[in-house]
Amino acid sequence: MPADSGTLYVIATPIGNLDDISARAIATLRRVGFILAEDTRHTGRLMQQLGVTTPMRSFHEHNERTKTASIINSLRSGQDVALVCDAGTPLVSDPGSFLISQAHDHALTVHVIPGPCALVAALSISGMAASSFVFAGFLPPRKAPGLRALQALQHETRTLVFYEAPHRIADFLAAAKAVFGPDRKAMLGRELTKKFEQVRKADLAELMIWLASNPDHQRGEFVVIVAGAAVTRTDTDELIRIITLLPESLSLRDVVELTCEITGANKNQVYALALTIRSRAP
């Protein structure tokens, strides 16, 4: 890294509850040269509550490419810089990947100050498999591309995680029900960590009824967790293929863990298959 260069800090901020920000995050926000924020007015209110007076610069998906060069120059000259998003952990459905990639390419130091993340928060209370999942973020805004995105995940056996806005949540559930079927289990996490937080787990058909039963149920930001597809006979053949291809030098435990990580399949099922295959080996 260049001598005396600055550090780019990627800092998670609260998704609703101000007390969720870490002391380290506040201290760093106070001492960096400037803060990059998607919406300086929104982040400005947060900084005011935290007693942070550090200058802010607008940084979002429409100006990231044009502003990155000057930010890299600031880092190279020795300034520390903080990157935040409107809420939660930067780069999880937010801009910043180009900047961070450029920082690495210039051998600059990038540090993370972790904290709140809506998708992790929702997964942790969903009661669904969280060791392997697919984060799909926001679906495309237009109906046809959004439906195609769901159809591409129709047979995915890993747990699915989506973000959705209040004005689109009803359409999302209708599309999910059409693609995954009315009986597929799912969970809605609404306004997580905020005053009116609600978590509802049921099948997709029941969630649609619940959402329509009260206008307040459609307010706020949503994380939607959808159970993965059931493992079919064809999937079992695929599991056998993967287990057989893994090196014989691996322990049974490692074979099971790797296969589950690759496929998202049930651990007990994989263990039984792996045990049978290993016992038949010469």
Commentary on this structure:
- There is one protein chain.
- The protein is of the alpha/beta class and 282 residues long.
- It has helices at residues 23-31, 40-50, 64-76, 97-105, 118-124, 143-151, 169-180, 204-212, 233-245, 252-263, 267-280, and strands at 7-11, 34-37, 56-58, 81-83, 109-113, 133-137, 159-164, 185-190, 198-203, 222-226.
- The strands form two sheets. It has a five-stranded parallel sheet with strand order 3-2-4-1-5, sandwiched between helices. A five-stranded mixed sheet has the order 6-7-10-8-9.
- Helix 3 (64-76) packs parallel to helix 4 (97-105), helix 7 (169-180) packs antiparallel against helix 8 and helix 10 (252-263) crosses helix 11.
List the helices and strands and how they pair.
Layout: E1 7-11, H1 23-31, E2 34-37, H2 40-50, E3 56-58, H3 64-76, E4 81-83, H4 97-105, E5 109-113, H5 118-124, E6 133-137, H6 143-151, E7 159-164, H7 169-180, E8 185-190, E9 198-203, H8 204-212, E10 222-226, H9 233-245, H10 252-263, H11 267-280
Parallel strand pairs: 1-4, 1-5, 2-3, 2-4, 6-7
Antiparallel strand pairs: 7-10, 8-9, 8-10
What keyword list fits this structure?
alpha/beta; five-stranded parallel β-sheet; 10 strands; 17% strand; 11 helices
Short recap of the structure:
With 282 residues, the protein is an alpha/beta fold. Helices cover 42% and strands 17% of the residues.
